[in-house]
């Protein structure tokens, strides 16, 4: 008899762990991803801010999964899933190829959410892929070059004003690092401008930064940002973004007022939405979606009425079923890894006709770096409760934790060397920006 076929869509943290958990079993696995690489997304902002090169935070999927490939039951396809036929148990790829499956694990991740203002995307790119990182890097480096060429103060000031929208971990990390670039890395590299006069402004709609942390740590993070010359404006809801700047409504002075920032570089870190495959699954299976477009799953991560389909990672609106009331699972990489392993284990239980088990998320805590020698750490220590600290010790812990979880010894070594060099010299080695070739001017023009 043919072995059961498991189709896994997406090679993020959840997809990788699902493959690893299933590869030793008597199943056929097909992994589909639209890129050829696995991305260590927690360090993607380092690529966007020229601190690391792309290969340091990514690796070819076929290289990452070489041990699994040797077992002979894994097929990897670089393709994009266009449609999922829930009733027919098939998925259609770009080019029209159809793949039949017995069990489906969807780990397609998330994309940017502009809360109904998709026209803002062209002016305020988000950070989810390597392409996004290259785009942001080109905008940031290009802004200083354009400021050097500016003919008047107003234009120069607009190019030297950077706005980061959203004060979660990505926004805080981006703002702190961009200020470090302006204050140190570029301080002696321009003649007409003083990069230290750059303004980095962090806008957050809620009343504090890093809302996932306790209030004290949020306050510590804000103080560390301000010491790095970042202007933090909480209670500021963006109402408009265009090529000339950002408009936002604030209640800082009591009554709501609308303000305007003239700036030419805006980074979006305020919201995420589920992959479009979430809506595809909802249409085919009747599954519910939450406000962010994530698929509401059963306790065992499957879809209601369709136990053969599981959704994991950022695309899943999942809850942890431990002691007490079920709690929402955060959209972080440890959660995606645990969901990938749990979904794979439940697939094997279904094949053996055993009952599945509900997903329980083990929370190891939260980490966020603010900038040079500045970070906050909130750890869950078994038997001791929460261990919270900030500053230099937290920054060192953050460094070593991220190096440890990188995939591959080569990547760990490269990142460690690059960070050590940057620490002592303030230099950023990945500042080269490739410009697309421009067509020659038409004759007679």
What can you tell me about this protein's structure?
With 445 residues, this protein is of the alpha/beta class. The chain has twelve helices and 27 strands. 32% of the residues lie in helices and 27% in strands. Helix 1 (13-22) packs parallel to helix 10. The chain has helices spanning 13-22, 44-48, 61-64, 66-70, 130-149, 153-159, 169-185, 215-227, 276-285, 333-351, 392-405, 409-425; strands spanning 5-9, 28-33, 37-39, 58-60, 74-78, 81-85, 90-93, 98-100, 103-106, 110-112, 161-165, 199-203, 230-233, 236-242, 245-250, 257-262, 265-268, 272-274, 295-296, 302-303, 306-311, 316-317, 319-320, 327-328, 365-371, 374-381, 385-390. It has two domains: 5-112 and 273-351, FAD/NAD(P)-binding domain, CATH 3.50.50.60; 118-270, FAD/NAD(P)-binding domain (3-Layer(bba) Sandwich), CATH 3.50.50. A hairpin with a 6-residue loop joins strand 15 and strand 16.
